[in-house]
Design a protein that fits this description.
five-stranded antiparallel β-sheet; Penicillin-binding protein 2a (Domain 2); 21 strands; five-stranded mixed β-sheet; single chain; 2 domains; Beta-lactamase; alpha+beta; 582 residues
Length: 582
């Protein structure tokens, strides 16, 4: 019995020891848990809170709305429409790689290609999958609820007029930054500043709560341009039609408001649609009217007459003997098509006499010619601040020699842009006041610099009227009810080793109405290739560019409600028909 009692005592002591050990371990664990809880709640609270926020709280961008571009009458030329972009966190979506087939199907992408993109960017937390999806399509992607897949609201630029205004308006990058044209030139004005906010999101990326606004978005300002979309459409239609008719290489038309210097229309061919990013190639989107230079041919002859009148050596009725129909200067012979004999300045322009113009130019001091040309803006940018605008080329008179002066007098040895040439004619039409070219709509009078005597400018406009009248080189530029002043230009293109004998630039520059010019317009047709001899004429400025000028101006004058200044020469039947029109 005593032995059994001893065994019981040993068992009791063993039980108590084990019980105490277990209790001690439990108490030790409890103390450890309490200590850990205290550590987490008090000592590491900030770290844990940050980790929690990092997993559920995000700072998201609030896209700013880019300013709209409109024509002078409020018609939209460029607007921003809301779109959604799909992006992923590669680290998150890699943990749910089994969802990839659904995502690839929704995005209409190859699954293997998509997998490679994601797995090769696991060191990143942001990766675009698709930019600028329609919101309704993007909503379908979001509805899949795939962890790591998110949507970002952005804006896509849309151009309602398409290729009609493509060259002047330009386009933006996919990130809505100005890339060409007015979009680039006025990018700082148009571009807004994105905002930011802090949000809490759930496991599937859905926003649960907006925590705070960090920075409100600042929308861009709208740009009201000088462009008149109706005249722009008209110029675009007529230029495209001429390109097809004459099978030309390229072409440009510029229409400028003489009183303000505003560009009412600027079109080029070939054109492009800025809404189609596949068409954004330099050969298509280059604005030839502002960037491409060419030798203007006889369209500069009025500027030589302006220098002659300004010198005091000539009056509008002064005469020049062009006999025997050619003039030798150094080793170069300058010829007229016919021996015109003794003719006045108006006839020199009307017949586009190379001999007469060269004789006038050679009788002047080189600095007189240079001063007139630079005063009209040649060799300089127009002040438009249009991106990429060229200043053309005009050498200083100190480098001129007699043969160079004779060559320059009929438009070779200097280069201009269509915009620059139109600016010079607008200056003449404005009474010799050179105003800066503007692509923004302006209000009120525009100050300018008096670069040509008003009397000289007025006399020159009168002289140029004979170019469009019977016997002149541009009868096809005439308009019913309006007097037209202008000048043709037919320049052979420069090639390696000299000048081409079959590639020309056909030009017409004009002012309407001639009695008080309101519009200055230049039409340039590059390399018309159709052989017009089949209809008894040649491809020249007067046969190719002048009719385009007439068509554009006929519509523009009506659109701007500019009254006729030559009603006495309108056929009676035309007046009766006009009065009977309801």
């Amino acid at each position: 019995m005593k032995l059994r009692s001893g065994e019981n005592d040993v068992q009791a002591k063993s039980y108590r020891w084990r019980s105490g050990l277990i209790l001690g371990l439990v108490l030790l664990g409890a103390v450890g848990l309490v200590a850990r809880a205290v550590e987490l709640q008090l000592l590491d609270h900030g770290f844990l809170a940050k980790q929690g926020d990092d997993r559920s709280m995000r700072v998201v961008k609030i896209a700013a709305h880019r300013g709209a571009i409109t024509d002078r009458n409020g018609e939209p030329l460029a607007v921003s429409t809301p779109v959604d972009s799909v992006w992923v966190n590669p680290q998150e979506i890699n943990d749910n790689i089994d969802q990839l087939p659904k995502l690839a199907k929704a995005l209409k992408q190859d699954q293997q290609t998509l997998a490679r993109r994601i797995t090769s960017n696991l060191d990143r937390e942001f990766l675009y999958l698709v930019r600028h999806m329609p919101p309704e399509v993007a909503a379908h992607v979001k509805a899949l609820g795939i962890p790591g897949v998110y949507l970002l609201r952005e804006y896509r630029r849309y151009y309602p007029a398409g290729e009609v205004s493509g060259h002047v308006v330009g386009f933006t990058t996919i990130d809505d930054k100005g890339q060409e044209g007015l979009e680039l030139g006025f990018d700082q004005l148009l571009n807004g500043e994105d905002g930011a906010k802090r949000v809490i999101q759930d496991l599937y990326g859905r926003y649960v709560e907006n925590v705070e606004s960090i920075r409100p978005p600042q929308p861009g300002r709208d740009l009201v341009t000088s462009i008149d979309l109706c005249i722009q459409y008209l110029a675009y239609r007529e230029l495209k039609s001429a390109m097809q008719e004459y099978r030309a290489h390229a072409g440009s038309i510029i229409v400028i408001d003489v009183d303000t210097g505003e560009v009412l229309a600027m079109v080029n061919q070939p054109s492009y649609n800025p809404n189609d990013r596949e068409q954004l190639k330099a050969g298509l989107y280059r604005n030839r009217a502002a960037t491409d230079i060419f030798e203007p041919g006889s369209s500069v002859k009025p500027f030589i007459m302006a220098a002659a009148l300004a010198s005091g050596q000539y009056r509008p009725d002064s005469v020049v003997d062009t006999s025997p129909g050619f003039l030798k200067v150094g080793s170069k012979v300058f010829e007229d098509e016919h021996n015109l004999g003794t003719i006045d300045l108006a006839t020199i322009l009307a017949k586009s006499s190379n001999v007469g113009t060269a004789k006038v130019a050679l009788s002047l001091k080189p600095e007189q010619i240079w001063s007139t040309l630079t005063g009209l803006g040649l060799g300089q940018v127009t002040g438009s601040e249009y991106p990429g605008e060229s200043a053309g080329m005009l050498s200083n008179f100190a480098h001129w020699r007699p043969i160079g002066i004779a060559t320059l007098s009929h438009g070779y040895g200097l280069s201009v842009t269509p915009l620059q040439l139109a600016h010079a004619y607008a200056t003449i039409g404005a009474g010799g006041i050179r105003r800066p070219i503007s692509f923004e709509r302006v209000s009120g009078p525009v100050q300018g610099e008096q670069v040509l005597d008003p009397k000289v400018a007025h006399e020159l406009v009168q002289l140029m009227q004979q170019v469009v009248e019977s016997g002149g080189t541009a009868t096809r530029a005439s308009l019913i009810g309006y007097r037209v002043s202008g000048k043709t230009g037919t320049a052979f293109k420069s090639i390696a080793g000299g000048y081409s004998t079959d590639k020309i630039m056909a030009v017409f520059a004009g002012l309407v109405p001639a009695s008080h010019p309101k519009l200055a317009t230049v039409v340039v047709i590059d390399e018309p290739s159709r052989d017009l001899r089949e209809v008894g004429t040649l491809a020249q400025g007067g046969t190719v560019a002048a009719p385009v000028f007439a068509s554009v101006m006929s519509g523009a004058l009506r659109l701007m409600d500019i009254p006729p200044d030559d009603l006495q020469n309108v056929p009676a039947a035309t007046l009766v028909q006009a009065n009977e029109t309801p």
